[in-house]
Specification:
By secondary structure, the protein is α+β, with helices and mostly antiparallel strands. It folds into three domains: about 5-145, no CATH class; about 155-230; about 245-315, no CATH class. It has helices at about 5-15, 40-50, 70-85, 105-110, 135-145; strands spanning about 155-160, 160-165, 170-175, 185-190, 200-205, 210, 220, 225-230, 245-250, 260-265, 270-275, 285-290, 295-300, 305-310, 315. The longest helix is centred in the N-terminal third of the chain and has 13 residues, at about 5-15. It is elongated and about 90 Å long. The N and C termini lie far apart (about 60 Å).
């Protein structure tokens, strides 16, 4: 039994590997009697032309059964034929496919590392008659194509106090949420309490983005900093081109490059920074200013971040 959706996955294989790029754009043909006018007819003809599929009604094999579901055994055959796997690892990789019509293909798939089995962690079974889920198909194809996993990293969060980097918290880039005025934080090279062990620090009333490096020994922050998270959710409303207020922002993600004008709070001083990174070190400051009047600054597309303290008020894009 076959499904048109699985055919789409196999065409991905064909387009990705030049040796089987024949599937791209092949016109519908007449190999099978039951796929005429089917949206996947061209793809079905493509895999039939390269003997990836024989049909679904042996020995005649005049039909493809495009709307049927695919079993794990059938998927094994499709991939083995498409990729040209020949090594079966001396066979008998699984205990539940002995004598199965697709046993040889299953062993080849397992030897190629495309399947691990269906009963982890033992993985002594393949479950050849179970239907293939879309998730399993993704695993099969990504292994066959040698694709690296794009699984997003786990979100790390922590609160106030002194944390050991690599123990209590992982290295990474963090944003603080739920902060209040008077947030103090510091990156540490050790825990002696000596000033020389402060790599970088800040005392601020606005939201922060900070990079904690793998070589740091620790990170300390006060309760006013709130909770730090590695999930860099946007700190502002609206689009990156809209006016914004005090805070630390990622250029391109939260504010657009261009020329911006501040409307400062009367009687306050405005401090701002263009940044090349978020380590908090002086070397990350591209340029800055501290003024009691209106500021105009051009934020470059190569900048990583922009910090604006309370006194700057609202920034509006003018160019």
């Amino acid at each position: 039994m076959r499904t048109g959706r699985i055919v789409v996955g196999l065409v991905v294989l064909a387009v990705t590997f030049p040796s089987i790029a024949w599937a791209n754009g092949l016109s519908p043909g007449g190999t099978f009697v039951d796929d005429n006018g089917n949206v996947f007819e061209g793809a079905i003809e493509a895999i039939a032309a390269k003997d990836i599929t024989k049909g679904c009604n042996p020995p005649a094999n005049t039909k493809y059964c495009p709307n049927d579901k695919v079993t794990r055994g059938e998927m094994a055959v499709f991939i083995v034929r498409a990729m040209g796997y020949t090594d079966n690892g001396d066979g008998d990789l699984f205990i539940d496919d002995d004598g199965h019509i697709f046993e040889n293909a299953i062993d080849r798939l397992g030897t190629a590392g495309v399947t691990k089995g269906c009963n982890p962690p033992a993985n002594t079974k393949f479950c050849p008659n179970d239907h293939v889920t879309r998730g399993q198909m993704a695993a099969f194809l990504s292994r066959a194509l040698g694709l690296a996993s794009n699984k997003p990293p786990a979100v790390a969060t922590f609160g106030p106090g002194t944390m050991v980097v690599g123990g209590d918290i992982p290295a990474g880039t963090y944003r603080n949420l739920g902060f209040s005025s008077g947030c103090y934080w510091e990156r540490l090279s050790g825990f002696s309490g000596e000033f020389s062990e402060i790599i970088a620090n800040d005392f601020t009333n606005v939201g922060q983005i900070g990079e904690i490096k793998a070589e740091d020994a620790g990170f300390n922050s006060t309760a006013a900093c709130g909770t730090w998270t590695s999930q860099l959710v946007s700190a502002r409303q609206g689009t990156p081109g809209d006016p914004f207020g005090p805070g630390t922002y990622r250029v391109g993600e939260e504010i657009t490059p261009g020329t911006w004008r501040s409307t400062p709070t009367e009687g306050d001083f405005c401090y701002w920074e263009r940044r090349s990174g978020f380590s908090g070190e002086f070397s990350d400051i591209i340029t800055n200013d501290f003024t009691d009047s209106t500021s105009i600054v051009t934020i470059d597309g190569g900048d990583q971040g922009f910090l604006s303290e309370d006194g700057c008020g609202t920034w509006s894009k003018i160019g």
